[in-house]
Amino acid sequence: MAGGSGLAREHTLFIHAPDLPWEKGLYSGARPEVRSKVLSIDEQATDATVVIEYPAGWSRSEPEHLTAHEEFLVLEGEIEIDGEVYGPQHYAFLPAGYVRQRQSSARGAKVLTMFYDVPQVVPGTPDTPFDEALLVRHIDPLAMEWDPGLVDPQLAAGVAIKPLRTDPYTQETSFLYMSPPHRVPPGMAKPQWTHSMVEELFCLAGTYVWGDCGRMGPGGYAWWREGVYHGPAGTDVGYLLFVRTVNGPLDNIFDTEKRPFSWEPPFAPQVPERLKPYSRPYVEPPLA
User: Fold this and answer.
1) How deeply is 241 buried, as exposed, middle or buried, from its count of CB atoms within 10 A (0-12, 13-18, 19+)?
2) 285: exposed, middle or buried (Cβ count in 10 Å: 0-12, 13-18, 19+)
């Protein structure tokens, strides 16, 4: 099974998921009864990050398992797996071979989903048991406290994290990350930065202003490749992000040169060719 190396996925910063078209089923051909949007995918069409829309009344009542790890965060609606009810922002990591006895979504759901290999649905129980060390059956982040102590001290005060998962083998992490409003780079200038690993971002609420790319709003998505510099960045209204690291734990590598920051940067995202037709500036809805 693929381990989610991320090395073959194209750099994307950023695209808005609501602007992408729906496709029938998953990219592997599995689950033809759902719709999906592919946010990023590797060259071999194995590992991918997608948004899945489960229709109201969807259900699967027979035991089955997937050939890939499935990591997910519910965006809208509700989905139930073996009695566990996942509402908005609820999280799970179900390893390859994990048996789902029954699944359903009475009201429908939209779910941010990361597959770590080609997802194929196989009836029954696999010959090889799943890796218990990887299982995160269910986390409700609304029952957790924010932890500012987990944030890189080089970053501005006020931000905090809710940890969701750390891979016991690779130390890759998944977490929620929040910033309060009015977080402005000191003197409206700040260095760009990058990482030695891939950082995957999905904006759940608020806006994230990238000095070199534009304003990213709810549904904004990034597959930030290692060694690619971006920024400076800030937020005037605050934000809530889902973050996943690929190929190791999170680190931040800052440039030495400070660059000016503006609340109205030009719209200049870096996206793959297949996404360019859907790349549009974020337009904030009116307050009244």
Assistant:
1) buried
2) exposed
Tokens in use for 66? 């997937």
Give the residue-averaged pLDDT of 182-200. Answer: 88
Token pair for 116? 């770590």
Closest residue by Cα to residue 220 from 77, 116, 112: 112
DSSP string, 32-95: TTSEEEEEEE-TTS-SEEEEEEEPTTEEE-S-EEESS-EEEEEEEE-EEETTEEE-TT-EEEE-
In the prediction, which pLDDT does 20 show? Answer: 98
What pLDDT is attached to residue 148?
A: 83
Residue that the structure tokens 């309060």 belong to: 180
Model confidence pLDDT, tens digit, residues 76-93: 999 999 999 999 999 999
Q: Could you give the domains of the chain?
A: 20-140 (2.60.120.10), 148-278 (2.60.120.10)
d(CA 5, CA 83): 32
